[in-house]
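Notes continue from the previous slide.

Worked example: a multi-chain complex. Inputs as given:
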Amino acid sequence: MALQTPTSHEQEWREDLQRVGFVRKLLAGRRWYGTDWWLVAISAVMVLGFIILALFPSLFAPYSPDAQAGPRFLAPGASPDVPVLVSLASSSISGLSDLEVPAGDPRPSVGVVRGVPTAQALNDQAQALNDELSGTGMELRPRIARFDTLEETLQAVADGTVLAAVVQSTEYEQVAGDYPTVAEGESITGGVSSEGGFILGTNQIGQDVFSRLIWGTRIALLIGFSASIIALVLGVPLGLLAGFRGGKLDRILSVVMDSLYAFPGLILAISITAVLGPSVLNVIVAIAVLYIPTYYRIVRGQTLSVKEELYIEAAKSIGARSSEILRKYIYPNVIPSVAIIFSVNVADAILTGAGLSFLGLGLPPDTADWGIDLARGQGFIQTAWWLITFPGLAIMLVVLAFTMMGEGLMEIFNPKLRQQ
Amino acid sequence: MSPLSIIFLIIGVPAALGLVYIFVKGSAGLRRYILTRIALTLPMVFILASLVFFVLRVIPGDPVSSALGPKGSPETIARLNEQLGLNDPLLVQYGRFLGSVITLDFGNSLTGAHRPIVDEMSERFPATLELVIPAAILSLTIGVFGGAFAASRRRRTADYSLRLYSVIIYSLPIFWLGLMLQLLFGVKLGWLPIAGRIDAVVGTTLHHITNIYSVDALLTGNWAALRSVLAHLVLPTLTLGLILSGVFVRLTRINVIETLQQDYVEAARARGIRERVVIYSHALKNAMIPVITLIGLQVAILLAGAVLTETVFSWPGMGRYLVERISSRDYTAVQSVITMFALFVALISLAVDIIYSLVDPRVRY
Amino acid sequence: MEDVLYSVRGLNVRYATRSGDVHAVDDVSLDIRRGEILGLVGESGCGKSTFGKAIMRMIRTPGRIDSGELWFDGADLMTYSEKQMQSVRGGAIGMVFQDPMTSLNPVQRVVEHLTETIRTHEPKVSELAAIARAEELVEKLGIRRERLDDYPHQLSGGMRQRVMISLALALRTKLVIADEPTTSLDVIVEAKFLDLLRELRDEFDLTILMITHNIGVVAEVADRVAVMYAGRMVEIGDVYGVFARPKHPYTVGLLNSVPNIDLAAHDLYKMEGTPPNLLSPPSGCPFHPRCPRVMDVCAVEIPVLQEVVPGQATACWLYDQVGVTGG
């Protein structure tokens, strides 16, 4: 007679939903939430990426952030101009030390271009290496042959007139195509040859910008996470307490928190770091203090509005204890908001931290930090644009990732704003 | 008369008159509301000032000797300590500090030229105003109309683009935006100056009345100076204004979306009111009410941004003054500046609340 | 032949949701006669409010009117542009909403509500003239003209409802759609409101579509009544006829559900089953899972609305669909 009743239909559907795994639910969410799902997904991947960078910077950074690995003010993508040894591709000579011969043997001839300082560099390096070799029976005393132009020098190498030549890497690169039999070797000064990469250039004391960028992630995330966690640990319980208990405690706390919240955060952080002195811990503390009121206010507000709900009254009327009410009703309503705030908070904390170090306050001056790099780079804005572009870009990307995640989560968790 | 006093008069007198007018014409509810707000502002200022005082007193070591550095002989240090009253018990110093806040007499700066701090602020506070006011107007304009537009085109390209814009702007470090603008418009294109308030040569011709250079130039008819000031104003205002606009776009959008879900919006449409009127008149006016209450809080962000913007553009305002004074460990000046900031925030907060009460008829009547 | 003001033919309204399409109004045809008060009743979610909005073409995404003809006063509104519809709304057709507190703009004075409406439809009218018309209008409805300068929150509930009516009548209105107009009013105010409605109908030559779930209100004031269930029209007819001799089993159940003070507690009637899931509605007649007189054909084919006695039509397989039977 009657078909399957609606209620059992529903029940089955519900049971099916339970059985479906978490991962399936996650992926099914894509269709349900659309754009916002992608927002959260992409930003979560980015955040994960940054965390990995922060935890293992040496895996990704070619150089140590303090190492003055290259020439100063190298533009991104440009190769450093170093004197390199060139020789026949077929020969096994790649470095200056390959020119060592036993004492007494005929000295190898090395070509240089007349008037270019490579000859001096060659002399100095060869001298230094030779001194090291004294007593071993080997010597390095190349015979220097001077040519008028680079082309003649390279031709001499190709012809075999000289065993090798020392030329400026940048000049050589421009004409290297004309001499296919000649190959570039190492730099004779031991620095990086043109093969080496300073992808984003070097700064005013020769440090690799890219490496400093990677290492900067560590400090930025450290400050961001630590400050937010401390603020959360202090702010959330206070908010719960104030919201749940109310009364005088609530009023006093709220006035203090509101005043703190209304005050310009950066200025407060500036004062605290000025007082405490420059160190990473002090910066973390200063920023944490800044954000305690944020957690406090949101948690208190949520607690208050949940407390007013009718089901709390109903629960109380059947004898539920305060701790039960807190656990069963208030926590589940408050936790999603806290998660969202945390994400946005980390973003904010990183921005504030960068601002502090940009102003020269808070971090010790030798830290590899984006804000510090930006401050130092500002002086060279006319000549070295890359010094201020990339650290700032890094800050923006990290902050963007966390902000996007928070935004996406908020659209998903906040049903009021979801259409229908 | 010092420029600071002039500015206070320009703002204070109309504000006071306005307040009296509101009082006389408003309903009892309104009067009660305003009085309550004023009464709440006082504890806030008190708390903030006290916070400033105690936080700075926590400095380990002797502030005077750290300020003077190795130049300070023991006699000088002792003399200064005595002069500044730093040997007195803490409570006495606290009382003296509160007194100085009320009378706005902050004493002299500890290092450097030892000038009265009020004079130094006299020069710098108007500079900050000149930067902050246009930036606020810019950010509000972009923010409010952008947010309303995004809300009206919800879930379509315009909405997502504006949301993307506000998220990106929010993530931009303000000092980086300033640097990039400097790089592009100052260095690469050479269109605009990148530092200072006015061209040095032209600046000597400007007669200072309020120390707000654009106003002074207008008042004295000095067009060359006006052009120079405006040119210097463009980049810093753009920097500060754009960053803040992101916040307002988000705020307005959310509030307009909620407002558009209200019954009276549907009812207005049922009467044949044009969609544009519905959104930008009916919905926006209602949505602005909660936004106004939040503007007060954005002032804090405005000031923080001002500190950074002034540093990037070498703008001689209160923000840069603060950073300078901290670097030279001039803690008297630092204390005074932060107190001034706190006062400023409290007053703006109060003003915004009063404006809110006038705008929302449910409070007015 | 009665004079028909608004003839709705085959209206279909759907809403797109994340779980699929909801068929909120399913092939509904209805004639609203000039000068009558037609009640439209049904439980929450049956589609009556959607219907009311649809005939003003006020359905917005994610909803849409899939098909149908809306013959209002000789013209099919479905062919109108948005601009033309805007002049119809608030003009020839007006709407009175359920909650007068939330239906009035809190930051706009009452007089501005009226003058804005008048001047939107008749731009040549000056502000002063509009104010004069507004004052005339509200006085007819029993509101003193001084109250026009007030904001909505300063008025009482009954006054606000009267302001709502005046807004619907501000121009030469022919049809007033009242969507749950008395739900938020207390009984005394409600009675006054219904009296007012009858007066206005007579004085202004109005036609009223009263959408409500309150059967008592309909019984008191309506000339005809239409019953909707799950987006379909199940019965329509003269109000006395339908209430005294209901034909459709749903109407029977609805009328039985109205509590009677003479009944004892255990005699309270409760309809079997739960409201239909509009995402996947039952096949055939939407009421069949709950119908106490269900037959095999009910689950298979959808019944068509047909006149079963003069002045009363119903959509039910109980009544021979081929020809009209008596009784």
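Summary box: The two ends of chain A are 36 Å apart (CA to CA). The domain at 13-62+204-419 of chain A is CATH 1.10.3720.10 (MetI-like fold).
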